[in-house]
């Protein structure tokens, strides 16, 4: 699984993190208050929902 996600992760680091400063892996609380107690789930991908939905 790691090998299949590696191209996505590298492109996110190059395109998203380098230009916007947003972290590539974000805790749930980063997106919504009240989710501070969820510590074993994370978001992986662009912060922009519209960009995330593009093929």
Question: What can you see in these coordinates?
Answer:
A two-stranded antiparallel sheet has the order 1-2. 42% of the residues lie in helices and 11% in strands. It is of the alpha+beta class and 55 residues long. The protein contains two helices and two strands; from the N terminus they run αββα.
The structure class reads alpha+beta
Helix content: 40-55%
**Strands, total number:** 2
Counting DSSP H or I runs of 4 or more residues, the number of helices is 2
The biggest beta sheet reads: 2 strands, antiparallel
Specify the overall morphology. Answer: flat
Averaged pLDDT: 80
Low-confidence stretches: none
Strand-and-helix sequence, N→C?
A: HEEH
Radius of gyration, rounded? 12 Å
């Amino acid at each position: 699984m790691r090998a299949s996600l590696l191209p996505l992760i590298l492109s996110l680091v190059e395109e998203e993190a380098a230009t916007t400063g947003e972290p590539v892996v974000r805790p749930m609380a980063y997106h919504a208050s009240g989710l501070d107690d969820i510590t074993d789930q994370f978001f992986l991908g662009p912060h922009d929902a519209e960009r995330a939905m593009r093929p």
